[in-house]
Amino acid sequence: MKPIHYNVPVPKDRTLFVQEDILERFYPHMHRHEEYQLIWIVEGTGQLMVDDSLHNFRKDDIFLLGSNQPHVFKNEQVGGLVRSVSVFFNVKGRLAGMLDLPELGVLLDFISNSQRGFRVPNTYLSQVRRRIEILKKSDHMDQLINFFYLLKALNSVSAHLKPLSGASFSENEPHATIRINKLCRYIDEHFKDNIALSEVAEQAHLTPQAFCRFFKKSTGKTFVSYLNDIRVREACRLLGTGTHDCISTVAYLCGFNSITNFNRVFRNVIGESPKEYINKYITLLYQ
């Protein structure tokens, strides 16, 4: 399903846009927009689909959606109302010059590392919610200043944030970044094969033990966990197309050597079985 490009109605006299919505339902189509979107679910429950991942949401949840990250919210209650507050901002627009200031470099790095989005952990919801409320009530220069305080609050808990989809990289050294990107591309290109740890370690010119330490430090994931995530994301994509009647076929196409292993890994990554995922996916698309 190709996402629709959505133009956020940012006023011409604004650097960022705070929008409060009270609706019967969210915008119903998978879509994307250039602006990052920080959204606070004030009222409502349902599911958020981001890329090929599903996330449940409830009252007071807060999500950041990356620039051009495909997503759609579906609320559960028919006939009820959903209420949300969204902060839209574009780091390539008017903010670009300000975020390029040395003093704000840490915030730019935080945003760049959050391209795959995140959910704010429950422990920090009240802190972030308070900042959004202050931002919503402010105007002109105060709004811009309070926006930076909001980013600062989010950055302060960045160690506890997990991407809504995909993997993140934490290695900062240039040569190490080039090496890990090369390794991840290799895995991305060969995940459907019977790829072994020793094979990937050889690509890095490291022993398997040294490779495991380097990979975990660079990505925050073990090699097996990273490989399983890629295989499961591909399985989600294939299951979502509806072109494969047999789940075992999808499992083998994604590099799993047994349906039992596939079901176990899929549940560990997604939190439900492949059959449950298909049923929720179909329900979400055709509500």
From TrEMBL:
InterPro entries: Cupin_2, Homeodomain-like_sf, HTH_AraC, HTH_AraC-typ_CS, RmlC-like_jellyroll, RmlC_Cupin_sf
Every HTH araC/xylS-type domain range: 181-280
Gene3D superfamilies: Homeodomain-like, Jelly Rolls
UniProt entry keywords in alphabetical sequence: DNA-binding, Transcription, Transcription regulation
Coiled coil (residue ranges): none
PROSITE patterns attached to this UniProt entry: HTH_ARAC_FAMILY_1, HTH_ARAC_FAMILY_2
Pfam families to which the protein is assigned, alphabetical: Cupin_2, HTH_18
PANTHER family: ARAC-FAMILY TRANSCRIPTIONAL REGULATOR, TRANSCRIPTIONAL REGULATOR MTLR
Name of the protein in its database record: AraC family transcriptional regulator
The species this protein was found in: Sphingobacterium pedocola
